[in-house]
Design brief:
There is one protein chain. By secondary structure, the protein is mostly helical. The protein folds into two domains: 39 residues, no CATH class; 112 residues, Serine Threonine Protein Phosphatase 5, Tetratricopeptide repeat. The chain is 69% helix and 0% strand. The protein has seven helices and no strands. Helix 2 runs antiparallel to helix 3, helix 4 runs antiparallel to helix 5 and helix 5 runs antiparallel to helix 6.
Length: 170
């Protein structure tokens, strides 16, 4: 009697699984599945094909598409995956730095550019790193100017230095 209850329970579970699978676009019927009684002790368990990991060219293309369409969170995920697929390549780190800089995530951009430079010393990466560092520096100087007391000589120096930087940038 307990075996019969277990068999009914397993059949109900399998029927439920078939229903779930058909809800996801897979048509499965309980008749197509082996019944519990049919699978004897000598039956071999089913084998499942393992999914191939995506290649780096595919991930790079997806990252580029997501970046160009402004889906930055998706692009970031693909760029991070690309860095894992190509750990010695500077390209993914450079692109990740560009993404972070575009978003205004300057600290993250600086780290990404430094990672790119560790892998390949390249002038354009150094250029972008410098731009990010200037933006960080200007931001820090502006904040310092706001925080310093009005009568502090450092406030005046900070203002003059910022003015000089901004004039030089024009």
């Amino acid at each position: 009697m307990p075996r019969m209850c277990l068999a009914l329970l397993y059949s109900a579970m399998l029927a439920g699984c078939a229903t779930l699978e058909s809800g996801f676009g897979v048509t499965a019927t309980t008749a197509a599945r082996p019944r519990i009684e049919d699978a004897g002790p000598t039956a071999t368990p089913p084998t499942f094909a393992t999914a191939k990991p995506p290649n780096s060219a595919f991930v790079e293309e997806r990252a580029r598409q997501a970046y160009e369409t402004g889906r930055w969170d998706v692009a970031e995920g693909y760029y991070l995956q690309w860095t894992r697929l190509q750990p010695n390549d500077a390209g993914p780190w450079f692109q990740l730095g560009n993404l972070y800089a575009e978003q205004g995530r300057l600290d993250a951009a600086e780290r990404a550019y430094r990672e790119a430079l560790r892998r390949r010393d390249e002038a354009r990466t150094l250029h972008n790193l410098g731009l990010v560092q200037v933006r960080l520096g200007v931001g820090a100087l502006r904040e310092a100017q706001q925080r310093l007391p009005p009568d502090d000589p450092a406030r005046r120096e900070t203002r003059e230095f910022l003015q000089t930087l901004l004039e030089a940038a024009q």
